[in-house]
Amino acid sequence: MMDLAMRNEFETWVETGRPPLDEQPLLGIAALMTTAAFVDPVAQVPIFDAIAAATLASNDGAQRAAQITEALPWVKEGKPRIALPRPLWTGSGILSRHRRQRPKASWI
């Protein structure tokens, strides 16, 4: 189970587009991928291109972070905050209600 404080911090990185690339490169890359997938689909291609280029160029986390920051200047400055929809996995989402109410299959 993920610590709630960590989850809130991760969601803030995703919403603002300011991942901790310098301090925690792999977690920062994960936050960028989440931004691309769920928050800013327009930025998907630049984000994944920057991550791929940095990953191919170096195995060093600091060098990768520097290259990603160079390719995506808003990583340091931040993007306008975008409110994320409430996640489906919290138990309050439509998906979890649907699972609770799903009828049994007739062949079971």
In short:
With about 110 residues, the chain is mainly alpha-helical. Helix content is about 60%, strand content about 0%.
Low-confidence stretches: 92-100
Structural class designation:
mainly alpha
**How many strand elements?**
0
Terminal residue distance: 31 Å
**SSE pattern, N- to C-terminal:** HHHHHH
What value does the average pLDDT take? 77
Overall geometry comes to: globular
Rg result: 17 Å
Number of helices: 6
- Percent of residues in helices comes to 55-70%
**Proportion of strand residues:** under 5%
The biggest beta sheet reads:
none
Description:
The relative contact order is 0.13. The chain has helices at 4-16, 25-39, 44-57, 61-71, 74-77, 94-101. It is built from 6 helices and no strands. Helix 1 packs across helix 2. Mean pLDDT is 77; it is low at 92-100. It is globular. With 108 residues, the protein is an all-alpha fold. The chain is 60% helix and 0% strand.
